[in-house]
Design brief:
The protein is an alpha+beta fold and 638 residues long. Helix content is 24%, strand content 25%. The chain contains 15 helices and 30 strands. The strands form nine sheets. A five-stranded antiparallel β-sheet has the order 4-3-2-1-5, covered by helices on one side. A five-stranded antiparallel β-sheet has the order 21-27-26-25-24, with helices on both faces. A hairpin with a 4-residue loop joins strand 6 and strand 7. Helix 6 crosses helix 7 and helix 10 packs antiparallel against helix 11. The radius of gyration is 34 Å and the shape is extended. The C terminus is likely disordered.
Amino acid sequence: MNVTVNYSKYSDGRVPLEIITGITPEITEYLDFTIYGWVFFRSDGGLGVNHIGRWLGVSHRVGPMMTYWVLPKSGIPISVDTVQMVTNAEQQTDSVKQQMQRWTADVSKTVDAKSTYINWGKEDIPHQMMFDFDDEDDKFMRNFGMLINPETLEDGDFEGTEEAADDLDAQDYTNMEIGLRRGAEGELQRAKVKRRIVDENGRPIDVASSNQLLNTRQYEVEYADGGTEIFAANILAENLLAQVDEHGHKHRLMEEISDHRKNAKAITKSAGSMLLPSGGTRKRQTTAGWELHVILKDGSSNWVTLKDMKESFPLEVADYAKLKAIEDEPAFAWWVPHVHKKRDRFISKVKSKYWERTHKYGIRIPKSVKEAIQIDRENGDTLWQDAIKMEMKNNRVAFEEFGGDIKKVIGYKRITGHMVFDVKLGENFRRKAQYCADGHKTEAPAALTYNTVVARDSVPILLTIAALNGLDVQCADIQNAFLTAPNLEKCYMITGPEFGDEEGKTFIVRRALYGLKSAALAFRSHLAETLENLGFYSSYADPDVWMRAAIKPDGEEYYEYILCYVDDILCMSENAKDVMEQISYKFKFKKDKIEQPESYKIEQPESYLGAGVKRKVLDGQHMWTIRGGTYQRKPSPQ
């Protein structure tokens, strides 16, 4: 069911697995068969006799790849890898008809209760299948006693308890308050879960589960305006968990402050200052007695103490106090001017810092493609345009031209992009342009987008292991790293002037374009898959330290290591360059633009994670040193 289309208006035509993970599921293995369709299969790895059965689905995580669940005549599902669909023409032949009839008769004896003979004689039941309160252990009886009291157990007590088959640890969402998106604009509105939906026999609809993603129980929710809708429990769980912190406290988004009030605890203006021993005065720092009426994004409202509002929304409260001319009240006077001054200072710093960064190393930095072309015209060269062409040539693999009506493609969102320009000091002031997607303008996908990198503590530990085992250490950078991974988000764009002759076309983003929220995670997953295919496995202590057993020429066993910090690869092995060459078959390393412009760069590291790294010999022993001074002496960007 997780790869079956969902007709909920919130699914936007996507299947449940894609809604939860953000990844379009692969359904190729489902296309050759129909659920519960007739199939021929062979057991024993395809060497057995041809049998007939019913196709039940794909058996993931069971046996080799491309294996399927099949229901044989025994009535017990099995996983096999040699399966062939019985065509309609074959089903019309007498021999196949007889096989299907025999299969139906055999399976009916197993799964059809009406055709099964049940002997209720106690003496005929095997001892291991008997249930006796006196013979059960204490743990079982405690759990059993939570559900059924054996002393009061009578005939008929199990009538109408089909729900007992459900997961008893499943969450009940009745009476919970939650924010749900409603309407065409997806506006967040407050709602309350009123009741579980039941069928005509009073049984809850669908199946409960302690795994919230699998809990499909149906609930009716009521909005503040009295309207009601029906949601599955997993949808409620998804919204609920997105609106609370790790302690379960609800995140509240403020719409506006509509009113204020104070009570007897609020101090008067005459008591707003206190006399100091030195003879001076100081404003009293208190917010006692004041409350603000807050309207929230979900439509609810509440009176909140000034103390809490000051901590959560200091600037909004300060602006409200100034608008209502109450900033001279003692509860506001001691902190509102400070907030406004701080706001103005931040704005001035941001503006000055941005506009002062018009040049780098004396070279004017453009802010757009149009300005880059204008600078080249003024300078009589094409340095910036060449940088743009090189970047877009490398990025072109991320896009696929779409010639149809993009609005008819379900689930895709339009995004935009922009160019970031820079000057590389260490590469003869080379002009650099990087194309970035405007991921900050899109919603975060439902899947987790967090991407791990190697821990800083792992580096000296592994360098010590390399020195003790006499291992070589090599490093390299993966070129256009994100573009090697498939895009996990569904998005498209209308091309701009940086695309040259292709400006104005509709492109679907097929690769993990830099700037997308899931780009780092997509690349990390792609790199992990490559390393696993090479025989490496991730360390339990640090998931970005990869290990592989190896043997030295003298027969000594050891481990090869690879450390990954996004696109920076550090390898430790007896033949580190050979290992890096294996990785280069899948990923392209950055070239040495100065000394060897035609070859990619694999070398011993001189720095890693900002710290200087150097190999030394002390008392005849090779060792690696890490210097923090290199990182500390680096000038911060101006």
